[in-house]
Design brief:
Length: about 270
């Protein structure tokens, strides 16, 4: 199986890199894997009996902004501190070796691909980014970079004042992330990225495409569905699904049942002379 993966990688003219929360695990980030995974990462919410879905709700920014910013401020700080694991660089090496075109599609909001040196213009963040802010109302369609300093009391997971605010109206701002039950998310930035990806795929549809999918779960299957759609719709596309717990995919697409970094290292070892 690994040999076939190495063949697909070495012959690829185009790479589509698709990633879910599991891509961050080898950089030390938690995935959420249902309520128990979430509570292990955030014991304060276990004490409060609140699930990921309940915490990731835009209503908190209106009702109790210190609570809303507690969750998202903590994650902002965590993702700012995180160093992307070696796997990000292994793929970049393959891109250079093949002089290949690429695009990243991720449900992660953590900005780790850009941090690892991937071109901002070649990333589609389907659920938005924690590093961008918008007004919670919203009073306008403005989306701006999040360079706020946010401090959190980790015992209560509440953010300390002052909280990030909208420069337009002075209301508390929120991350430009699609949350649950979210009617005020501004999709404009993500739409622009999506259109760039659609143009990319249309331009490259006749070429040999390797879709490398890593850490995409089936609970919110957006990323898995995207990889599969490309795999079935585009003639010369092969999907390589790297996932330790849910690696299933129908042939001719290929399943690697291991962690992202481990899988990428093994493939790389076969490619290197
Ligand atoms: N870093 C982030 O931005 C971040 C973190 C957590 C959740 N989220 C988002 O929240 C939603 C749900 O999150 P979730 O945690 O249930 O994610 P998920 O549903 O994507 O599940 C994580 C997946 O990663 C796999 N995995 C675990 N360890 C791995 C490893 N070392 N290498 C590769 N794969 C590994 C698991 O088997 C699972 O399939 C998604 O939209 C997700 O993108 C984002
Ligand atoms: Zn505003």
């Amino acid at each position: 199986m690994l040999k076939r993966v190495a063949e697909v990688i070495s012959e690829a003219e185009v790479f589509v890199i698709t990633a879910g929360a599991g891509m961050g695990v080898d950089s030390g980030l938690p995935d959420f894997r249902g309520d128990h995974g979430f509570w292990k990462a955030y014991p304060a919410y276990a004490r409060l009996g609140l699930s990921f879905v309940e915490c990731a709700n835009p209503q908190h920014f209106a009702d109790d902004p210190s609570f809303g910013w507690g969750f998202y401020g903590h994650r902002t700080n965590l993702y700012r501190e995180t160093v992307p694991h070696e796997g990000f660089h292994i793929i970049k090496k393959w891109l250079e070796r093949n002089s290949a075109e690429y695009f990243v599609i991720t449900s992660n909001v953590d900005g780790q691909f850009q941090k690892a040196g991937y071109d901002e213009e070649r990333v589609h963040e389907v659920h938005g980014s924690i590093h961008c802010l918008q007004c919670q109302t919203p009073c306008s369609s403005a989306i701006w970079h999040n360079d706020e300093v946010i401090t959190i009391d980790e015992a209560t997971m509440r953010a300390r004042q002052p909280l990030p605010r909208c420069p337009g109206c002075g209301e508390v701002s929120r991350p430009n992330i699609l949350m649950f039950g979210d009617w005020s998310w501004l999709p404009d930035r993500t739409r622009v990225q999506e259109q760039a990806f659609d143009r990319f795929l249309a331009k490259n549809a006749d070429r040999r495409i390797a879709v490398i999918e890593m850490g995409a779960g089936s609970a919110i299957p957006t990323i898995r569905a995207t990889s599969e759609r490309i795999g079935w719709m585009v003639e010369h596309a092969t999907v390589i699904r790297i996932n330790p717990r849910e690696p299933e995919i129908k042939p001719p697409h290929i399943s690697l049942p291991c962690g992202a970094l481990e899988g990428l290292r093994k493939i790389d070892a076969l490619l290197s002379p």
